[in-house]
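Repro:
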Amino acid sequence: MTGGGGFIGSHLSERLLRDKHDVIVLDNRPANRVAGTGLITADLAAAAPTAKAVQGVDAVFHLAARVGLGRDFSDAPLYTRDNDLATATLLASLSRRGFRGRLVLSSSMVVYGEGAYRCQTHGPVRPDPRPLHDLEAGRFDPPCPACGTGLTWQPVMESSELDPRSVYAASKVGQEHLARIWARETGASVVALRYHNVYGRRLPLGTPYAGVAALFRDRLRQGQAPLVFEDGGQMRDFVHVTDVAEANVLALDHQMRPGDFDAFNVASGRPVSILEVATTLAHSFGSTGPDPVITAGFRAGDVRHVVASAEKASRCLGFKADVPLEDGLADLAAE
């Protein structure tokens, strides 16, 4: 398991150990106690330790990645190295070893860019990136690119076009493309899990999976109100980290032919606004939790609505998120 000392990886390794698997973890900077049969502290982009790590394994969970939006485009080489070069190094090491097993790749909702939208006149459409002048004017919902009228968001399907809108997102798309080519050329199989907003215990500040949940929690611990960007109406899907670990385990046993690549949304299937997340988390702090404050601030490059369809994962993997948002946020508040 690459990245086994991270937020999701630490939960997944514990889950695998309960099933009596032997787990070898490769992580350059473990942030959490590593539960596993062995730990290799090394850079995944370094060929020698990566080759050592894959010897004798019969399945690989690839979670290691540089995450977040970065400061600006000057960070592009770091994302390309840590995500795409590191993935290529891992896949090359597996190829040289003659590996033909299962790779479960931790991908992300960011590969879609904006979510799915429908125009009443033009049907399904892909809105353009939101211009800065619209955001500054408080016009947060993207218009139809054909007629300029308002759009209705819809759940995004795995068959949707990939449209990365940040360097991080482009690097995650790159990981998927590399893994697809590798599977076809080697006869191994790949399941790409496109995580939506993952949250739960050990959630670090600054993670792109559920950054707002971590930021809201941090302010509430200090007795400060959560600060909500835009108008709070951004729709997302929050899925608990223990459910994400279960999705990884199910992906390990997904029936596939040699050389196949398949992708799944990992989500709760329950759309929720960012304001509702902030309000629910504040209520979890009881009387000490101040109400959220809507700031109308924004981050250039953010997308408005990304809500997943969880139907394919349910049908093909048997995955169903079990942790209700209210319970999961209450547990996060109590950590």
